[in-house]
Amino acid sequence: MSESKGIEPTKSKRWYVILTKHNCEKKLQKTLEANGYNSYVPVYTTVRQWSDRKKKVIVPLINSVVFVQVPEILLNDLYNFSHVKGILKEQGTPAIVRDYEIENLKIIVKEWNGEAVSACSENEHYEKGDKVEILRGPFAGIFGELVELNGKHRIVVRLKSMNVEFVINVPLNVVKKSSKETV
After folding, report:
1. pLDDT tens per residue across span 6-19
2. In sequence order, what are the residues at sequence separation of 6 or more whose Cβ sits closer than 8 angstroms to the Cβ of residue 34?
3. What are phi and psi of 38, to 5 degrees?
4. 3-state class of 17 per DSSP?
5. CA separation (Å) from 43 to 61, 149, 150, 164, 181?
6. How far is Cα 78 from Cα 154, in angstroms, rounded to an integer?
7. What angle do CA 70, 75, 81 make, to 5 degrees?
8. What is the pLDDT of residue 115?
9. Nearest C-alpha neighbor of 136 from the set 158, 115, 111, 160
């Protein structure tokens, strides 16, 4: 990408949130990739009903958002692309998305089916607010916070820099308590 600007390509790159114009996520990602940027748009397949037919379509998990991995010094260069509306900021500075948050999104869209996984029996004592890691199944590798426990529980995967939450139901026997900071 911009090795000519004296930036070490891997050490100084972080994930940032680029806000796009409406319905331009995939177009912007394609343009960024063609220009040597590492970008990511979490998408899933769903069935949409029109008056005359049903069709499978690929839609973004988070509307008007593209994640891009770039050194912070080059963020303003992204405004040169026509579909960029802005860069998400947190307290006046560009919001950084952690690598594990990107991995959580990849796991979620990889196994997306729009339905909850059925619950199983409890392995150890859990309480609301416990930090947990999913060990097995389609969501393996996700760190989250327990938000509900009634014979089953929900794991909330929260991207701090975006205040976006995803709630997934998983069996108790596929999680363990974690000390990793997730929320």
Report:
1. 444 455 899 999 99
2. none
3. -90, 115
4. strand
5. 5, 29, 31, 15, 26
6. 37
7. 100
8. 40
9. 111
Q: Is the dihedral angle over the CA atoms 112, 113, 116, 121 positive or is it negative?
A: negative
Give the bridge partners for 144, in sequence order. Answer: 132
First vs last C-alpha separation in the chain: 32
- pLDDT tens string 26-76: 999 999 999 999 999 998 887 777 788 888 888 888 889 999 999 999 999
pLDDT at 119 over 60: no
In the block, which residue shows the tokens 């929320």?
183
What pLDDT is recorded for position 62?
87
61: left (phi over 0), alpha (psi -120 to 50) or beta: alpha
Place of tokens 């911009």: 2
Task: Count other C-beta atoms under 10 Å from residue 170's C-beta.
Answer: 26
pLDDT above 50 (res 3) = no
Within 8 A by CB and 6+ apart from 147, the residues are 128, 153, 154, 155, 156, 167
Ranges of beta strands (E only) in the chain are: 13-20, 38-40, 43-49, 54-60, 65-71, 84-87, 89-90, 93-94, 96-97, 131-134, 143-149, 153-159, 164-170, 175-177
